[in-house]
Design brief:
Blueprint (H helix, E strand, L loop, with lengths): L4 H7 L11 H6 L6 H8 L1 H9 L10 E6 L2 E6 L2 E2 L1 H14 L3 E6 L5 E5 H17 L7 E5 L4 H13 L2 E4 L6 H11 L3 E5 L1 E4 L2 E4 H9 L7 E5 L15 E3 H4 L12 E2 L3 E7 L7 E6 L1 H14 L8 E4 L6 H14 L2 E5 L10 H9 L3 E4 L1 H10 L2 H4 L8 E5 L5 H11 L6 E4 L33 E4 L10 E7 L9 E2 L3 H9 L6 E9 L5 E6 L3 E4 L2 E4 H9 L4 E11 L3 E10 L7 H14 L8 E4 L13 H8 L14 H15 L1
Parallel strand pairs: 4-17, 6-7, 6-8, 8-11, 11-12, 16-17, 16-18, 18-19, 19-20, 29-30
Antiparallel strand pairs: 1-2, 3-13, 4-5, 9-10, 14-15, 15-23, 21-22, 22-24, 24-25, 26-27, 28-29
Helix pairs in contact: 3-4, 4-11, 5-6, 5-7, 5-12, 6-7, 8-9, 11-12, 14-16, 20-21
Bound molecules: adenosine-5'-monophosphate-propyl ester.
The site of adenosine-5'-monophosphate-propyl ester has 23 residues, from helix 12, strand 20, strand 24, strand 25 and strand 27.
């Protein structure tokens, strides 16, 4: 462990501002009384079962939970189809004409798709997938931008029981290849490109490079973005066109009846080692969690709300809070393809005004960027349709929270700061907007039915105010069921640090009022713009460059991104420490992993600070990079290494 939470806990500012739910909001909220916490506490399995009952089951479960720690089975024996929950149920209830998505492309092209149209589209894609030989249990990798066809393909896979895995369309060919290979995907569904900040991103060429080494891939189904967008890339050998495969298909397709515990999807996330983990989620429990949390945390009123989550479907937030949660609730949503500042920094607020968005969910990194761009951009627009705001992905600093509340929420919208992870599948710690008094910077308390504890290094519990390692002590329906192809790693990563308890990898503090403050990762994982990156992954990438002998990567505090990677690099003999080489290494990492991982800075050094046992002391590197007084150096094998490094860093800062 690096960066023990205790260090940060002691310096955390005490925050005394608190905002009770506005009376008007409370009066109409889906959850109005704190009694639901008590009820859920008295019978947490019954609480979750009451949510599962709101889904449409082909066959009801025989047992709510089978818990053989750390392996959970929820709604044992039950059968259902995930796409039915999100589509057929609403259409059968006569709500087919309700808008599912208001889509807006970056160039300004607009499409409105009703739930009935989504169902027809999903069935056509499902039939298309079947015609390509894809069936139950097969893996399908998706590499697509934020367009309705991505949501359709996700639901089409769910409809036929294929396990889908969305790879964020900013990842490099190598990252995409690794993921395709790890799951032995039979099919890749991709787009030729998309628009980002007025430019075309050529996604097809990424897929073309990635699949060259993927022997499992039989076909690549290519959807064309249109709008004048052209991919420069040559045809992919396995390529088949969407309009040929999907276009002629019938608009109905019987849903496959899936076991509650059949895998629904795999989503890769960074861990503490170089290899990303394929997190596996199953069907019944995941949907139960997504349905319940969306309804209570976002207070969804499907008849009147227009909900907009600005995340990409390539991340868990988009899975749970664009596709499955909101669609299972039957709400209308906004989906936007492009950048928040294209063509101008008010694009988001223009969208909120145009579509009368009422519930808006985004990330602190975006909020900090909006703050920087200036108040005049939101001020230009009528944001009076907003009634609830949310944030996710990283700790939100109280200053950004207050800005969000005032400039976007007009001081009338509650803010839900939601803590959760790819692994948890759904929101775990959050205010309920009609009940909880919110505090800027705190995610407040666990969702009903969830129990958290803060533990000390030795596993003893921190009771009352204080800080420690954040653990979840009971199973919950949307929990991960494992790591694809690596059961051992599942047990080791999450369940061995504090046996029998789920260790999230975060440190947290409980204040005197019982509110929880997430302090960030306590392992070698950093959080860049709300996305997880492992230091090891970037280190492995750096050492793959012929000039690099050894590398250590740390996350440093960054004004906009929250954290940003910085690489300390020892060069091989014969290479000179030039600015040009530093630039090349930054680009190398971006090409190997994806733009998100590009180091902010590369520092050349002849030595790295190590303990006598040879472990790199990243904590000290972080002190150097953040210009802080360096902490305890007594365990260093050679304390003089650090002085050299500090000088190196200061010189670099000067140029
Ligand atoms: O460190 C926590 C941080 O993001 C991590 C999970 O990352 P990922 O699996 O990519 O999922 C992000 C979206 C759910 C957590 O371990 N994190 C997430 N939400 C918050 C947060 N940190 C503080 N406050 C939050 N609200």
């Amino acid at each position: 462990m690096t960066n023990q939470p205790q260090e940060t806990i002691d310096t955390l500012l005490s925050e005394e501002r608190s905002f009770a739910p506005p009376a008007e909001f409370q009066a109409q909220a889906n959850a109005q009384s704190a009694e639901i916490y008590t009820q859920a506490e008295q019978d947490w399995q019954g609480w979750w079962a009451s949510w599962a009952e709101q889904l449409q089951w082909d066959k009801k479960w025989e047992q709510v939970l089978d818990w053989q720690a750390p392996y959970a089975k929820w709604f044992v024996g039950g059968k259902l189809n995930a796409s039915v929950q999100c589509l057929d149920r609403h259409v059968q209830a006569g709500l087919g004409n309700r808008v599912a998505f208001y889509f807006e492309g970056e160039p300004g092209d607009q499409r409105t798709l009703s739930y009935a149209e989504m169902l027809e589209g999903v069935c056509q894609v499902a039939n298309g997938l079947k015609s390509l030989g894809v069936g139950k249990g097969d893996r399908v990798t998706l590499y697509m931008p934020m367009v309705p066809e991505l949501a359709m393909t996700v639901l089409a896979c769910a409809r036929i029981g294929a396990i889908f895995s969305v790879v964020f369309a900013g990842f490099s060919p190598t990252s995409l290849k690794d993921r395709i290979q790890d799951q032995s995907a039979k099919l890749v569904v991709c787009a030729d490109g998309c628009w980002r900040r007025g430019k075309v991103l050529d996604l097809k060429s990424v897929v073309q490079q990635a699949v060259k080494e993927c022997t499992s891939v039989e076909k690549v189904l290519l959807w064309s973005r249109g709008q004048g967008l052209r991919s420069e890339s040559a045809p992919i050998p396995q390529e088949v066109a969407w309009e040929d495969v999907v276009g002629p298909q019938p608009t109905t397709c019987p849903p496959e009846s899936m076991d509650a515990e059949d895998p629904l999807f795999i989503l890769y996330t960074s861990g503490t080692t170089g290899k990303p983990k394929g997190i596996v989620h199953t069907t019944g429990g995941y949907l139960t969690g997504a349905l319940a949390t969306s309804k209570l945390v976002f207070d969804l009123k499907p008849e009147t709300d227009v909900y907009w989550c600005t995340a990409d479907i390539g991340w868990i937030t988009g899975h749970s809070y664009i596709v499955f949660g909101p669609m299972a609730n039957g709400v209308s949503q906004v989906m936007y393809e492009g950048a928040p500042n294209h063509p101008a920094p008010d694009r988001f607020w223009q969208l909120v005004e145009t579509y009368r968005v009422s519930v808006f969910y985004t990330a602190p990194t975006a909020i900090r960027a909006f703050m920087k761009w200036g108040d005049e951009h939101p001020s230009k627009h009528d944001l009076s349709s907003l009634r609830l705001l949310g944030t996710v992905g990283e700790p939100i600093n109280p200053e950004a929270w207050m800005w969000y509340q005032k400039q976007i929420g007009g001081e009338r919208c509650p803010i839900v700061d939601t803590w959760w992870q790819t692994e948890t599948g759904g929101i775990m710690i959050t205010p309920l907007p009609g009940i909880t008094a919110t505090v800027p910077g705190s995610a407040t308390t666990p969702f009903p039915g969830i129990e958290t504890k803060l533990l000390r290094e030795d596993g003893s519990e921190v009771e009352g105010a204080g800080g420690g390692y954040l653990v979840l002590t009971r199973p919950w329906p949307s929990m991960l069921r494992g790591i694809w192809g690596d059961a051992k790693r599942y047990e080791e990563t999450y369940w061995s640090r504090f046996p029998g308890k789920y260790f999230a990898g975060d440190g947290a503090k409980r204040d005197a009022h019982g509110n929880l403050w997430i302090l960030g990762r306590v392992d070698d994982v950093m959080n860049v713009s709300g996305h997880r990156l492992s230091t090891m992954e970037i280190e492995s990438s750096l050492v793959a460059h012929p000039a690099v002998a050894e590398a250590a990567v740390i996350g440093i505090a960054h004004e906009l991104k929250g954290q940003a990677p910085v690489g300390f690099v020892i060069l091989r003999g014969g290479y000179d420490q030039t600015q040009q080489l530093a630039e090349e290494l930054r680009q190398f990492v971006a090409t190997e992993i994806g733009g998100l991982a590009r180091p902010e800075n590369i520092i050349f050094t002849p030595e790295l600070p190590k303990t006598r046992s040879g472990k790199i002391m990243r904590r000290l590197l972080r002190d150097v990079a953040e210009g802080k007084a360096v902490g305890d150096v007594t365990t260093l094998a050679d304390p003089t290494v650090l002085q050299g490094l500090q000088k190196e860093y200061e010189d670099k800062e000067k140029c």
